[in-house]
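INPUT
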Amino acid sequence: MVKHIAKRVIVTIPVLLGMVLVIFFMLNVVPGDPVTVMMREHLKEDLIDRLRQSMHLDDPFFVRYFRYIWDALHGDLGVSWKLNRPVTGLIANAFPCTLKLAVASSVFSWIMGIPVGIISAVKKNSLVDHLSMGVSLFGVSMPIFWVALILQNMFKNVLPVSGIESWKSYILPTIVLGWSSAGRIARLTRSNLLEVLRNDYIRTARSKGLSPLRVITGHALKNALIPVVTVMAIQISSLLSGAAITESVFAIPGVGSLAVSAIKNRDMPLLQGTVIFTAVLIIAGNLVADALYSAIDPRIRVE
Amino acid sequence: MSNILEIKNLSVSFASDGIKERAIAVNGVDIDIPQGRTVGLVGESGCGKSVTSLAVMGLLADNGRVEGGEAMFGGQDLLKLPDRELRRIRGNRISMIFQEPMTSLNPVITAGKQVAEALRLHAGLDAAAAKARTIEIFEKVGIPEPERRFGCYPHQLSGGLRQRVMIGMAMVMKPDLLIADEPTTALDVSIEAQILRLMRDLQRESGTSILMITHNLGVVAELCDEVYVMYAGEVVERADVMTLFSQCAHPYTRGLMASLPRMTPKGRRLYNIQGTVPNLRAMPAGCRFSPRCEFARERCKTEKPPLVDVGNGHLCRCFEPRTTPIAWGGDGL
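OUTPUT
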């Protein structure tokens, strides 16, 4: 088990290096010169050249790439051109808000999605089923910014709609983010459970004299939730890297807002930092999903 | 001798998507299972033999429905019992073994726990006592290293071992009746013989009656005392096993016997029954076997033959039951 996970961790190293290479290359070919971004447009040519040299922007591409990797390994992702502060510190400051929102909306989606999925599967084709699947489908298919704006408008007199004032500020963004996740989880739980309930071993469990409730909780659920757990782990990792749209609409100073402002300001080091941070979290999320998967399903447990 | 289970006039129907009319899968079936005996239920796929057993156990799929009849077990009609009371009988006084040992056990629960579960439910044992009792039954059904096997997941066991686990699970409460639905079909021949011997030994020890559902006449000859032959949702013949193999009377049963491979001179083709089983929604008006029957007359096509006694409790649903003994050396009917 430990060996299996260690192996997966080692495999991620080339993935990370390749990913940084791609991001680095892409931002390198994007038009726009950092010096003009920093100093505005009215600078003399020789001053620009001197600045470029002092920032090592004239070095060959791979020299800059390996220097970036080396610095990143020491926790240095460069300095934001716009804010003139270390990128690592900016992300670290923004992360708590993102973390709270991600945890809240994930927990919300689990405690809504899984029970709703179970009830829908058990009461298949009933009114409850159609209703909850409709609400789920709505959450999955509506654009997040639209749902956010509608909810803001509906609750503007009861709940804070912008910035972080207290825990209440997290309620609306949590619902906005959690709704679509909950919808996805509910639909997945329902379809998996329905499929599992058709299996021979469910008939065996019933033939033993177990009550319908015990058949579901004791025999069906564990099988049905295996794929759901995978989705949950990947979902929380993408939420942790910042929900750009939701954070922007609710003016939450999280990692997502940071990335959006980096794009607007052409702040390459900051953008690069947030994108790499996102990618690392998603890779970690996949690793966790993998470990959980083999913890729940004995068939893929490696001995 | 008293009967442990009496199925009377059982009918079961199924709904299909998009079709208004329900298909009748089992049509007025009577089966008696005497105490301590093994009764075979024979017929080809889709003749309603599994559906009959599932209906009795209250385990029909959602689209299945019992249309009528009764299943008397210990003075109670199982078909009318509320689910809560039926559950007290299921896995306790009547248990089941299924065909596919590969899929009949839950892949994410250890084999031991799946057996212990029945003990905790019906005998009210605590975890430790249930485990000890499970290891005991594992030993009895011939599972080597029972203590280690207790913690094994189904995918870590061979097909034969899984079926032994299933039998252990079914026998652990010493049921009055064991319904075995093709328990050896998915196993290879040497394992099949071991499993049949095990079932016979367990039966001798506990006095359990067995309803053996199979399409394999070899299994019937090996294990059963009495046999019911089903065709297209109806019982067409009932006889004790000796009578059945020496002089079965229904043309369908004769056909089954004739299509068994036997030691005949080289070059002779094996007999087969022409045609296929009729569609459940388009049953022939008269005898359901008449379109495939070599001996069918005009009367057979319009009038339905009743199940009549042709001597000594040997029942046959045919206007002209065959009377000659089966010629095991020759071929044809």
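end of record. Residues 2-73 of chain A form one domain.
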